[in-house]
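Newbie here. two chains, one complex. Structure please?
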Amino acid sequence: MRYRAASPLGTIYFILLVLFLYFPIGILVLFSFNDSILLIFPLRGFTLKWYAALSQAEELLKAVRNSILLGIVSSAFATLLGTMAAVGIMRFRFVGRGFFLAVASLPLVIPYVVLGVALLVLFSSLGVPLSFWTVGIGHVIISVPYVILIVAARLAGFPASLEEASMDLGATYWQTLIRVTVPIASPAIVAAFLTSFTTSFDEFAVSFFLIGRQATLPIYLYSQLRFPSRLPLIVTLAAIVMVSSIAVLGLAEWLRRKDQPA
Amino acid sequence: MSFRMNTRTRIAVLMIPPALLLLFFFVLPMFVMASYTFREGSFGAARQRFTLAHYREFLENAAFQHLLWRSMLLSLETSLYCVILAYPAAYYLAFQAGPKRLTLLTLIIAPAWTSFLLRVLAWKLILGSEGMLSSLLQSVGLLREPKPLLLYTRGAVVVALAYSWIPFVVLPIFAALDRIDRDLLEAAADLGCAPWQAFLRVTLPLSMPGVAAGFVFVFIPTLGEWVTPALVGGVKGVMYGNIIQDQFARALNWPLGSLMSFVMLLLMLALILPISRFARFLRLGGL
């Protein structure tokens, strides 16, 4: 592959765009260390007191725990079901395959408000009380398309002949699935899980409709925005959440690319 | 015969659980929502009675349609800004960034995966009258008194949305540009094309599928937005999604809310179905 010489104009534009994209995140991180309850310039001096105060904020920590739990459970279901679908789609031809793929991709393009409303009226009609589980189901539906696309892309890079060889050598189909297919797809499966987790951890628009009494982190944050005195704490938490999600995503990207045939 | 039976069992075991999930929690809810639009009220006995009153209300109230139209324009504008801002960066990545391009691409995409709510919150803090931009401009003497810059306007919604979605547009445009056969550009140069002519006649047309995919990626989700306008839009920046949310959170008129939501669903399907090879768009997105 040949590359053209980089023109300084292109480089400058790219740097400016990156700065723009990281600017709000940087601002939040900056103010998380600012020694003032008001989020305004000029800065008042360096402090770690907001970070210290975070460990005392019980409700907030409970919301974080709820979100982590919800993220793990919903991502586990989404990853399992999405991986099964990805293997089925990539390794078999069957009636309704295209239709399934189209329906499974629709959650990517249906606005979250529609999904939230539809699930709310479904649960209400069935008399299911809103809870952790109803939000979890919403998150599984949101995440499944991502899992299918990520795992299917990985499987497309490997010929089915590896699996055929395994079966020729005497393994049953299900042994092959567990011992050959899943290990081949494992970097993508981990990446899909992390992507689902990040999505669930951050999800607000659907959760808002389906949440019961236990608040997730985004729900709690939204409820706190009305109180200016809580903002420094929220900004500090935001700084932590954003920096760690960038780290998790970096890891997911690295896993997805790892020994992926070009 | 036994071979075929085996294959069928395998397909069934792999595909039935995810298919049931989608059937019960994605397809069925859409139909329940559609049936809800005919109910008289949200709760109790009114829930059982059939009525077309909500359809009448929706059709007669021009404000709803007006808001839907304005939201479409806002999403259209946002998508345009995203494409214009993303294209040069995608071009740089595809043609000029060299071997570090995938790392740089990840750098662009990473912010998109951090908390959406918190990024909107950041813009709220930046743009507000007691906010960071205002106080920064004051402290360097560019602004005399505290003043909301953009906050609670339509412009604030566009800025916050465009900011959020740029990375998702860089991705498909980059994928399309990256796929262009470099020999074509060389051939264009050999045949006497100036670089800008080669760009207009070869590169740009060949990158259009990526541009279209990026456009759709932004237009569709932003059209259904309600969180961003609720936080930074104020009264002037209200979108269609906000009045849907309002029917459930405040007005408690679920049937009308379901109808509004159903209209949005039909609108989305009408926009997507013409793109018959919709799956190809997704693959272009590199997702």
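Moderator note: The CA atoms of residues 27 and 157 of chain B lie 31 Å apart. Chain B touches chain A through 90 residues (CB under 8 Å). Thread marked as resolved.
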